[in-house]
Amino acid sequence: MNNASTIKKPIAIKIVTDIRDGHMKETKAVEAQGTYYKKDEVVYLTYTEHQEEVGDIKTLLKIKEDEVTINRTGAVKMKQSFRKKVKLEGTYMSPYGRMDMMTYAHNIEYKKLQKRGHLFFTYDLTLQGQSVGNYAVTITFKEEEHEHC
């Protein structure tokens, strides 16, 4: 077995989410330091995001050829999968309570180049049975170069 593929590599990651709900449009962007690794043809990205109002949230992105899973822990707990043209259920727990989620992904595209990667996916989001908009998520990352002293 080759363990080289499971070596964790430090990355700089940027997540941009465009949200459309009727005529309203909102864009959210997060930049963080994280980790990239690949195991059994599955790509994993991890990072921690700090939100002023609730605290730290650890995120694990699991990227397969046709499916993306987001698992968040900490101040917010969420597990949601996205598979093209399939409705999938999930849950979202925050300090304000639990919400049932449903997503319907329209598109999932992942490209990994030598020391960088790009993930793009779009989906419709339903919370507690109510449509809350169409989301377009672009995640880019690049391996960080560390100088050895």
UniProtKB/TrEMBL annotation:
<dbReference type="InterPro" id="IPR012674">
    <property type="entry name" value="Calycin"/>
</dbReference>
<dbReference type="InterPro" id="IPR015231">
    <property type="entry name" value="DUF1934"/>
</dbReference>
<protein>
    <recommendedName>
        <fullName>DUF1934 domain-containing protein</fullName>
    </recommendedName>
</protein>
<dbReference type="Pfam" id="PF09148">
    <property type="entry name" value="DUF1934"/>
</dbReference>
